[in-house]
Write a structure and sequence with these properties.
heterodimer; A: 433 residues; mainly alpha; MetI-like fold; two-stranded antiparallel sheet; 20 helices; 1% strand; B: 317 residues; 13 helices
């Protein structure tokens, strides 16, 4: 180990001086430069090999799944895989072609086949994403087509339901005939395609996602600001108290940090309920009457209060570690030069806390935009964030591509913030307690 | 922080106001956690202090919610409490089973995260490590990426772990990881790894690399050097990292909801169901137990941190 690892040993003991060629040589006669390059390469390889197992682990269990999710956000073969003949017809005929007899025949054939294979529901669901209200069109057509459709196909299918003649439906089916689509991203920003395939705004009652993104952004800002407002005095107090007492008080910050998230959220549910402790105390104090108990939970207020509490330590800890290093003589010097305490704070102390403030604020904001559990439990309907919509699409509507597209947009935002954090603060400086 | 002698009366008032504000914020931080504890001894199924509790009447308090943690899900909860009653509780009580699942998943995911994470941290803290910054960013990302996104990706991956191979043109068949203990353990290990990396690299910052050279020059082979020199010095950091990873797993609910099957009913999942359906004070009893658990962990981590600082010759903060 000693010989292999340490290039210096060989150099110091054996490099006697330049030989005839003018190059320094190691004990075994290799040129020194070459030996150094080789040994530093070996050291790099050894360091990398230590990291490699974990890197592979993370790539497989984390990066690949995220890649799979991204693929899911642009790929949905629910229609193209189960309606092959019609998909082929769309492929051969450019946009704007009126559906001819071949198209209707392909539709009839596919409907019948899909009904027999019991995949007609999948097909209907896929079309339903782009054109709400069409799933039953497919399932009922499938039921009727199972016993066979007689030519002329167009008339036969139109007889099942006049909606089959809708050009919008044919345009949507054309979109879906390719397994890859950007429609889910369009839907995630409240856009859709019209009959000509141009991008237009979605109908007003379907415009929910942009509003939800805005709300997530806004609530995260509010929560970040609240953690700053509450965290700053605490961090300052902890940084200026004598060590022993500040360590003691630090426990009050770290205990919530170590306590289960669900426990803290439950605690807020219990406290903020209409029959809960906070309302009881307010009634007892006479601030509010017994019949005007405040609704503090299952709305935005609940989300803000609980998330501020949960994320507060992430603001306090970086602020504290920066404030600890601020030399108190700067403020004293300012005071001795005639600054009032407010001016000394504003012009001298506060600017020095900015690195900690930036680190804390970024971290809290990054964590807040992706928060799921707390808003889901205490947010009601007005306190839901974008994560809750992703979860809803994953578990209730089962529109996985939509969930993936929303998640991809959220992920892009978080990664940008993460990059900024790494630039400004450095991930090495992330501290836990 | 003492007030300077030259403080004006206004500054004195502001100073005391500031202390009051700080006290209020500390109250905000700690009160929700503390208030859960007495409420879990409520004799009534309410989430507020009853009159009897406020007058410290013993009748206002009871252990019924703790008892319900044992009896909930039991085959014969009303039988006399002999050995077979306890066996029944051990095998059938839902919360007991949840605790067992949580511990199994937590221990194994912590083991994976700690071993891989410590090795990687050793590599990352070597000065010659190539692409250090980028790799570090990838390894920390499970902590930064919102859990719902991670869980969504894992949902797709674990229900068909061979699907990504089709990108390479291969098409093997393999089973599902979703709904198995292995799947949840791997997922939780992924989520716990950033914590191990952060704590262990922080410990290694103060580590004197020449100690390794000294050991090597005295004839120790790399294995001996690692176990006799490096390991004892970074052990406090490794243990706190492991505790962080364990807590992460022990408290994780979203990934479990997405990829676990009915067998992997962990404590957080049971709590989640309880809170969403019909919240009963039994949840508060669990919460109290978890608070006590976190106090124990926090104490351990604090002691370890002090020990680590002493070992590295840093003065305690």
């Amino acid at each position: 180990m000693a010989k292999a690892l340490d290039p210096h040993a060989a150099i110091v003991t054996e490099a006697a001086g330049p030989d005839e060629g003018g190059t320094l040589r190691t004990a075994d006669g290799r040129p020194l430069k070459q030996a150094l390059v080789r040994s530093s390469r070996r050291a790099r390889r050894r360091a990398f090999l230590l990291v490699l197992p974990l890197l592979l682990f993370i790539l497989i269990t984390f990066v690949v799944p995220i890649g799979q999710m991204l693929q899911r956000s642009v790929k949905n073969d629910g229609f193209s895989a189960n309606m092959p003949s019609l998909s082929a017809w769309f492929h051969e005929n450019p946009r704007g072609t009126e559906p001819d007899d071949a198209a209707w025949a392909a539709l009839a054939e596919d409907l019948q086949a899909a009904a027999k294979a019991r995949t007609i529901g999948v097909v209907g669901t896929r079309i339903n994403y782009d054109m709400p209200g069409t799933r039953s069109l497919f399932t009922s057509a499938g039921r009727k087509a199972r016993s066979g459709v007689e030519p002329p196909y167009k008339e036969a299918i139109l007889e099942m339901d006049q909606k089959w003649g809708d050009p919008k439906l044919w345009s949507v089916m054309r979109e879906a005939s390719s397994p890859y689509t950007s429609n889910f991203y369009l839907a995630a920003v409240d856009r859709t395609r019209d009959e000509q395939g141009d991008i237009v705004s979605a109908p007003a009652q379907q415009q929910i996602y942009v509003k939800l993104f805005m709300r997530t952004f806004w609530l995260s800002l509010v929560i970040t600001f609240m953690t700053f407002l509450l965290g700053f005095p605490i961090a300052h107090l902890l940084a200026t108290l004598p060590m022993r007492r500040s360590n003691l008080l630090m426990i009050l910050v770290l205990l919530p940090f170590w306590t289960s998230l669900l426990v803290r959220t439950t605690a807020w549910m219990v406290l903020l309920q209409q029959q809960g402790v906070v309302n009881d105390v307010l009634v007892w104090l006479g601030v509010i009457g017994n019949n005007q108990r405040l609704q503090m939970i299952f709305n935005q207020t609940g989300t803000i209060i609980a998330m501020t509490h949960i994320l507060l330590p992430f603001m306090i800890l970086p602020l504290y570690s920066v404030m600890r290093t601020i030399n108190p003589s700067y403020v004293r010097a300012a005071r001795s030069l005639g600054a009032t305490s407010w001016t000394a704070f504003r012009r001298i102390y506060f600017p020095q806390t900015l690195p900690g403030l930036g680190a804390g604020a970024l971290l809290v904001f990054i964590l807040a935009v992706g928060y799921y559990i707390t808003p889901a439990l205490v947010g009601g309907s007005s306190g839901q964030l974008i994560s809750n919509m992703i979860a809803m699409h994953m578990t209730q509507t089962l529109n996985w591509s939509m969930a993936a597209a929303l998640a991809a947009l959220l992920l892009a935002g978080v990664l940008v913030l993460y990059w900024v954090y790494d630039r400004l603060v450095g991930i090495d400086n992330l501290k836990l307690g | 922080m003492a007030l300077p002698t030259y403080a004006s009366p206004l500054e004195k008032i502001w100073h005391y106001a500031y202390l009051v504000i700080c006290a209020a914020i500390f109250f905000f931080l700690i009160a929700p956690i503390v208030v859960v504890i007495p409420l879990s001894f409520n004799a009534e199924p309410y989430f507020t202090f009853t009159d009897k509790m406020l007058s410290f009447d013993p009748d206002g308090y009871s252990l019924r919610w703790y008892d319900s943690l044992l009896t909930f899900g039991m085959a014969r909860p009303d039988a006399p409490r002999d050995l077979s009653w306890w066996a029944d509780a051990w095998h059938n009580a839902k919360w007991v089973n949840a605790a067992k699942s949580s511990i199994i998943i937590g221990v194994f995911s912590t083991l994976i995260a700690t071993v891989l994470g410590t090795l990687a941290a050793l590599g990352l803290s070597r000065p010659e490590m190539p692409w250090r910054r980028a790799i570090m960013a990838i390894l920390i990302s499970p902590m930064i990426v919102p859990i719902i996104i991670t869980a969504t990706g894992m949902f797709f991956f674990y229900s068909n772990p061979c699907e990504p191979l089709s990108w390479l043109g291969l098409n093997p068949e393999c089973g599902r990881l979703a709904g198995t203990y292995l799947g949840v353990i791997l997922a939780h290990a992924t989520l716990g790894i950033p914590f191990v990396i952060i704590t262990v690299t922080a410990t290694l910052i103060g580590f004197d690399q020449s100690l390794n050279r000294a050991a090597a020059s005295l004839g120790a082979n790399p294995r001996t050097t690692f176990f006799r020199i490096t390991m004892p010095l970074i052990l406090p950091g490794v243990i706190s990292g492991a505790l962080f990873a364990f807590v992460t797993s022990f408290d994780e609910v979203v990934a479990v909801l997405f990829i676990a099957g009915p067998d992997q009913q962990t404590i957080p999942r049971q709590m989640w169901n309880g809170i969403r359906e019909q919240i009963s004070p039994a949840i508060l009893a669990v919460a109290t137990l978890l608070v006590i658990f976190s106090i124990a962990l926090l104490t351990t981590v604090e002691l370890l941190r002090r020990r680590s600082e002493r070992l590295r010759g840093l003065t305690p903060r």
